[in-house]
Fold this sequence. Notes:
heterodimer; A: alpha+beta; CATH 3.30.1330.110; seven-stranded mixed β-sheet; B: alpha+beta; 20% helix
Amino acid sequence: MPEVQIRKKLTAVEEIFHEGGPASPVPLRRAAALAVIHNPFAGAYVQEIAGFMDDLKPLGLEMARSLVAALGGDAKVVEGYGKGAIVGAAGELEHGALWHVPGGYAMREILGDAKAIVASTKKVGGPGTRLDVPITHINASYVRSHFDAMEVGLADAPRADEIVLALVMTTGPRVHARVGGLKASEIKGEDGLR
Amino acid sequence: MKATIRKIVTFVEETRIEMGKIIDPPTRRAAAVAVIENPYAGKYVEDLAELMTIGEELGELLTLRAVAALGIPATSVESYGKAAAVGEDGELEHAAAILHPKLGTPVRRVLGKGAALIPSSKKRGGMGVVLDLPLGHKDAAFVRSHFDGMEVRINDAPRANEIVVAVAITDSGRPLARVGGLTKDQIKGEDGLR
């Protein structure tokens, strides 16, 4: 399988103090790590692509570590996560699906015993395409306060033969979460759902 | 602090490959962006002193954030730029009040130097408006390799009564600079131009 070629990386960190309501004593932070990589399958239909998932694992770990570092270095502060991919015009949506395993594996590896499925999204698009990466609680998908999303993208990527890979981590609930549902304090933590 | 800050976002970009060529070391740049309340939204106010003070505060805060995000000594910063986007209930002059009278002094204090003009741009716009921050060498504006731009965008800002304020710094010029002109090793550093 081909080597992973990284053209560019972007780290974005949002620190949200309020959204019109009372300022939170601890601001919500959301961090995104993006990597722009060459799509080794661009321009043709390739049947066997699954091996590339293993090649992406080291990059996934590097991105997950960089997110924890961007949030201050302690993985324990991470409460939500998500992932996504934007495939350039000469690729296919299935190429974005290659990110499910290495992206999810990497964040679980770095965060310890995260139980919930990593929410994800993907699309095909041109340079400047924005992706709304969905976010859910790392241990229980149904925690309503942690349903969130972070918009990411780069002005000059993906080119036709590139893929933008994204991982996102957050440190807490939406800044003014108040629509009820399962609370983080009520998580049983058995099935990754509740 | 005079400014009411809703949100701070930092971006770090790292370019490792450009047009197939490996950039070693990678070119890196960071932007720190604050979303603040516009105290003059919705009305004409003659004296913009409060925004000038806010500009001074943000000059220090955002430069410190950007340097920290880039993870280099402040004295290693090579180029810089600034920009502001005023929400629809504000006026373009509000951006000018933040950017021009007082913002530069703390930027230069944090960086230790900065003889050159800090290139700037401003606009009015709605949420998600794109800011293209112009970049120039901090000690000699004519260094051609360091003329550049960095795009930043926050999907949920500025609201009508907000202003987005950004400071960008780099550790380098363009990844494959080769159009001649003054180079950084030729800087005299007397007038901020050459």
